[in-house]
Amino acid sequence: MIKAARFTASRWPKEHRKPEISFKVHRVLAHIEDAEERFTAICTPPEGKTRWTADAANRRVGHQVVNPVTPEEKVSAIHALARDEQVAAAVTTELLRRPTVAAQVSAEDRVRVIEELTRDEGVAAAVTAGLLRRPAVTAQVSREDKVRVVEELTRDESVATEVTTGLLRRPDVAFKAMSDDRARHEVNHAQVERGRQAREHFERTSPVAPAVRKIERTMEFMDLVTACHSFVASAGRTVPRLRDRQLGEDERAIIHENVARVRATLDWIETAVDTGNVDVDGELARLLSGQ
Question: Which residues have C-beta within 8 Å of that of residue 63, sequence separation ≥ 6?
Fold first, then answer.
C-alpha cells in the first residue's frame, strides 16, 4: 500500500493534483506513461461525464472495472472471477444449461467442449450411446465410420452373434452377404460344425444314444442289402432281354468296363463287411470314378 502511494505521488507533482478528484482516480490514472497525456487526461473527464470515477479511470487505462457495463467488460469480469478451476467449472455448467446461451456457441467450440467433457471413458461411452440413438445424427455419419463403429461395438462375441443373427433375418442383407464367397464358405462351415458339435453332444449326453447308434448300424446293413438286391433284380430283368442279340464292339467294351467296376465294388463291400475297413485304394477309386 505504501509503495502504491509513493508511486502515485511520484506521478502527480503538486501543481498537477486535483483536490476535487479522489486519490483512487489519481492512482489509476498514474499508469498513463506519458506525463503530458496523464496531466491532460485528469483535466478531461470521459465524454458525457462531468467528473472522473474509479471505473472510468480503469476504463481509460484498460484495467478491470468494478461495475462492468459493456459485454467486453462483463466477459473480462467473469474471467477474473473464474480464475479458480472449481469456480470456472461451476459457471460453465450453469451457463451451458441455458439453451439460449448454448445456441450461440460455435460448432467448433461445441466440438472442443464435448471432447474435453468426454475424456473420461465412461462419460464418452454414455454420450456416444445417446447420440447413436438419434437418427438425424447417425444419418450424417459416413459409411466408413459406420462400419468402423459396428466393428468396434461387435468385438464382444455375444454382441456380434446377436447383431449378425438380426441382420441375416433381413432378406436383402442375407442375399448380399451370401454373395461374398468367403462369407458363404464360413456360413456353410459353421453349419457343418454346428451339426458335428450337436451330434457329439447328443452321443455324449443322451441316454438313448447307444440305441440310436445300433439303429444306424441296422439301417446301414439294410441299405447295403437293398443295394445288392436292387442290382440283382435289375440284372435279372435286363440280362434275359439280350437273348439272340449281338452287341457291337463299343457296346461290349462299355459293358465289360462297367462289369469290372461292379466286381471291384463287390470286393470292396466284402472287405468292408469282413474287416470294417472302408478305405478305397487308388485303383478302386479310379474304377469307381469311371476313369
Answer: 28, 31
**Residue 290 · residue 258 · CB < 8 Å:** no
Quick check: 81 pLDDT over 80?
Answer: no
Q: What is the mean pLDDT of the chain?
A: 81
C-alpha cell at 212: 440310436
Q: How far apart are the first and last CA of the chain?
A: 114
Per DSSP, the residues of 1-63 read -HHHHHHHHHHS-GGG--TTS-HHHHHHHTT-SSHHHHHHHHTSPPTT-SS--HHHHHHHHTP
Count CA atoms within 13 Å of residue 52 on its CB side: 24
- pTM attached to this predicted model: 0.36
- What is the three-class DSSP state of 155? coil
Q: How far apart are CA 167 and CA 180, in angstroms?
A: 15
What is the torsion angle, in degrees rounded to the nearest 10, for the CA atoms of residue 27, residue 29, residue 31 and residue 37? Answer: -140
